[in-house]
Amino acid sequence: MRNIAIIPARGGSKRLPNKNILDFMGKPMIAWTIEAALESERFQRVLVSTDSMEIARVAEACGSSVPFLRKTANDDHSPVSLATCAALQQCIEEIGETNDIVAQLMPNTPLRTAKDISQAMDSFLEKSAPSQISCFRFGWMNPWWAVRLDAACRPAPMFPEAKQTRSQDLPALYCPTGAIWVAKSDKLLEYKTFYMPDHVFYALPWQSGVDIDDDDDLSMAKAVFMMRSQSL
């Protein structure tokens, strides 16, 4: 069975310019994902899919394969799964390589570890599901208490049935994270999304699932990194 890790890293990030290669704790952000994928030893190829020569150079310096540049799904609106599908197709057409299982690892989740990846791959292989999406359990931010506010700041509960229920009696809720999405390659090429029929979720520690999209996320990820470093 041949496994590939695909790291989609489009250039042109607007909220955090050059997000994928900006410095995160002494390394380009993408380096943390490349190194975790390589360290997991679960893939025959760790490939960065990018439309940017600058990102390609950084990715190769960090040990990733960049055998081609992305030709499609380069805009702000295309789902990232389409970029992963395009990379799988380019592997077939340009380097004559087919893969059985693909793991999509977003470069803006640098706190996910090699152990996280290995355990997620084990979980996927133990199941019969065609795809698996990483998630984390909501903690102190309890979504059962979420409200919408109107113009006068009057609240409308999203889950009114939960208002009279003790927090410890409410079921756990989970949030997707882009850390580790896994699929059978043929199924991903067929459905063009990891949210295909019969997909499953896989829970990570919330610290491993921090997605960095803006300055606040970046500050939190750095704080979590320092917290983890101090506990080692």
The CATH architecture of the largest domain: Alpha-Beta Complex
Measured between the Cα atoms of the first and last residue, the distance is 35 Å
Low-confidence stretches: none
Q: Remind me, CATH topology of the largest domain?
A: Spore Coat Polysaccharide Biosynthesis Protein SpsA, Chain A
Radius of gyration: 19 Å
Instruction: Estimate nothing, just give the exact number of structural domains.
Output: 2
> Would you identify the CATH H-level superfamily of the largest domain?
Spore Coat Polysaccharide Biosynthesis Protein SpsA, Chain A
Describe the structure in brief.
With 232 residues, this protein is of the alpha/beta class.
Keywords, please?
11 strands; two-stranded antiparallel sheet; 2 domains; 7-stranded mixed sheet; Spore Coat Polysaccharide Biosynthesis Protein SpsA, Chain A; single chain; 232 residues; alpha/beta
Structural notes for this entry:
The protein has helices at 29-40, 53-61, 80-95, 114-126, 185-191, 215-231; strands at residues 3-8, 23-24, 27-28, 45-49, 101-104, 131-137, 147-149, 155-157, 174-176, 181-184, 200-203. With 232 residues, the protein is of the alpha/beta class. It has 2 domains: 3-138 and 174-231, Spore Coat Polysaccharide Biosynthesis Protein SpsA, Chain A (Alpha-Beta Complex); 140-172, no CATH class. Strands 1, 4, 5, 6, 9, 10 and 11 form a 7-stranded mixed sheet that branches. Strands 2-3 form a two-stranded antiparallel sheet. A two-stranded antiparallel ribbon has the order 7-8. Helix 1 (29-40) crosses helix 4. The two termini are 35 Å apart.
